TrEMBL record:
Leader sequence segment: 1-24
Pfam families membership: Phosphodiest
Domain of life: Bacteria
Protein keywords: Signal
Cytoplasm keyword on record: no
Protein name per UniProt: Putative AlkP superfamily pyrophosphatase or phosphodiesterase
InterPro entries: Alkaline_phosphatase_core_sf, Phosphodiest/P_Trfase
Record bears the keyword Signal: yes
Molecular-function annotations in GO: hydrolase activity
Length: 437
């Protein structure tokens, strides 16, 4: 476990984290999840004579916009795309990290799976707020992730930092507040930004050194630095270019490690969303057309989630609803149908969406800034996400028409050997032609 492994490096690491400087720090190597086989580069298959069955690995490169692939910075990803299948993938709305990572592994849109933003309130849990560190299962239990489905079917799974994979999915809360039951992947790691890309890849390879009886057949892997640099410096920055090169090197390390194990793999490499450039010159201040005394701002940025102060609904609606320069505001029941968003009780009563590249804030910023953001209209080209499929089950040279990311979970079910899911919001139809069979 990463939590256990980080104990040994604590005081220096904690000081770095407190200062917000975790990224440049390279911590010592993690303890292997399983004890490594001989250090020799000779493959496990060669030493045991074992013929290995393909495994499936779902890789997320957070914030990797679809057109980043054409920048000539990622030879490993480009090679996989050229010899496999690729296409432009539309994220679910809102085009945020946690809603889309949960959609990718459930096949259900945020309006139904309940992770409706990176931060939100729930009338069923007054006084509580969902954040990206929330681990109570009741936030997550509305849709079953694929690793739970696989574990129920006897398919061993392992997840490296996938959002939500640390949750005891399906656990119930007892009267005393404790949780009981629930399922996780057979192996999982608690997220830590101090664990670098090399260590993340090496954990995957280490899991796959296991004997066939205990080797994971479905794994996930998550990289976040492209997104982080996109927010900090913007999608067209040298910092993003460097992050693209770095994650591409990690993909190369993954492929080399798999080759050394003679491990055939079906790889799905995806992103959760793209990135749009933002700046302090493109900010819509809510206090310019709505009275702050009339509302509570639950979340702001590319969209604003708003609830009225009790008794102030009419006053708020007179000022807020309708079109404003670079922003549209609706009652939740009137959010355009194409977003498939607005029925879940966790969505705030009023919702404003900014034009891509604009930000909604409570008031004008005090200082100039420039960077990047996502969460906009999921049909906007700047929100389009990476999709690459490669492996023994995938036909080479396939270029897919743009499709919605609810097709990923059904595709994973095909690759893992699970039956088609029921009650999903997507099918494998948009991606079915990538399969050799």
């Amino acid at each position: 476990m990463i939590r256990r492994s980080l104990t040994a490096i604590a005081p220096a690491l904690l000081a770095l984290l407190a200062g917000g400087c975790a990224y440049p720090y390279t911590p010592p190597a993690l303890e292997p999840v399983t004890r490594a086989a001989p250090a020799s580069p000779v493959s496990a298959a060669a030493t045991t004579g074992e013929a290995k069955a393909p495994v499936t690995i779902l890789v997320s490169i957070d914030g990797f916009r679809a057109d980043y692939l054409a920048r000539g910075l990622s030879p490993n990803l480009s090679r996989l795309a050229a010899t496999g299948a690729t296409g432009v993938m539309r994220p679910a709305f809102p085009s945020k990290t946690f809603p889309n990572h949960w959609t990718l592994v459930t096949g259900v849109v945020p309006d139904r799976h309940g992770i409706v933003a990176n931060g939100f309130l729930d009338p069923a849990h007054p006084g509580e707020r969902f954040t990206m560190s929330s681990e109570q299962p009741y936030w997550w239990n509305a849709a079953e992730p694929i690793w739970v489905t696989a574990e129920k079917a006897g398919i061993p799974t392992a997840t490296m930092f996938w959002p939500g994979s640390n949750i005891a999915w399906g656990a119930t809360q007892k009267p005393n507040g404790d949780f009981e039951g629930g399922l996780r992947p057979h192996d999982w790691q608690q997220f830590s930004g101090a664990v670098n890309d090399r260590q993340r890849v090496d954990a995957i390879i280490d899991w796959l050194r296991r004997p066939a009886a205990t080797r994971p057949r479905f794994l996930t892997l998550y990289f976040d630095e492209v997104d982080h640099m996109g927010h900090e410096a913007g999608p067209d920055s040298p910092e993003v270019a460097g992050a693209i090169r770095a994650v591409d090197a990690a993909i190369g390390r993954l492929r080399d490690g798999l080759a050394a194990l003679d491990q055939p793999v079906n790889l799905l490499i995806v992103a959760d969303h793209g990135m749009a450039a933002t700046s302090s010159d493109r900010v819509v201040a809510l206090d310019q057309f709505a009275d702050p005394a009339d509302y509570q701002l639950i979340e702001d940025g590319p969209f604003a989630a708003i609830q009225a102060v009790p008794g102030h609904e009419a006053a708020l609606e007179r000022r807020l609803l309708g079109h404003h320069d670079h922003v549209d505001c609706w009652r939740k029941s009137e959010i355009p149908a194409r977003f498939h968003y607005g029925r879940n009780p966790r969505i705030a009563p009023y919702f404003c969406l900014a034009e891509a590249g604009w930000l909604i804030r409570a008031k004008r910023p005090d200082k100039p800034f420039a960077g990047g953001m996502h969460g906009y209209d999921n049909a906007d080209p700047s929100m389009a996400a990476l999709f690459i499929a490669h492996g023994p089950a995938i036909r080479p040279g396939i270029r897919l028409a743009p499709f919605d990311n609810v097709a990923v979970a059904p595709m994973l079910r095909d690759l893992i050997g699970l039956p088609p899911g029921r009650g999903l919001d997507g099918t494998d139809a948009p991606v079915r032609r990538v399969f050799k069979r």
